[in-house]
Amino acid sequence: MFYKDERLALFIDGANLYAAAKSLGFDIDYKLLRSEFMRRGKLLRAFYYTALLENDEYSPIRPLVDWLNYNGFTMVTKPAKEYTDSMGRRKVKGNMDIELAVNAMELAPHVDHIVLFSGDGDFRPLVESLQRQGVRVSVVSTIRSQPPMIADELRRQADNFIELEDLKDVIGRPPREPMADAPARDYEQSDS
């Protein structure tokens, strides 16, 4: 489904891809991911979207964000909002959908193929609009988790669905153990 001479751009919904890979029992090796898509076409940009806690003494995502920033990824971040849920757990809210959609629309005239790493059904209208502009759109997520991580309407809209588990041997690595002194937090995406 890829052509060697096509201009590619990757759009990675960080929280969504992390959750999908975690549900399948592996971590993403972003160096291998970038190399794999450079092999598949002319990779123009690889965007990674995530919300970050500000003024936090330790953020588990900070080392990844720093590494990606120095290794060929365009980082798009914004401050996350932290709150305590009804069960007393600390949660973090941060939705990057608008930023991803705006960047994809801006880049559309310069690419042939966009690879969206997300299963979020909110991206279906974006995919449809990109297709009307002549851009092919592949979506990477999983149907093999319980429940499936990709919305059915997004999978139907995409030109190509790539099962994340099928990429495990190419871009995956065994999950790392969480650091013992790192605070445990649940990251979620919401509409605020």
Automatic annotation (TrEMBL):
Residues 170-192 are annotated as: Disordered. Residues 7-165 form the NYN domain. GO terms for molecular function: RNA nuclease activity. It comes from the Bacteria. This is NYN domain-containing protein. It comes from Litorivita pollutaquae.
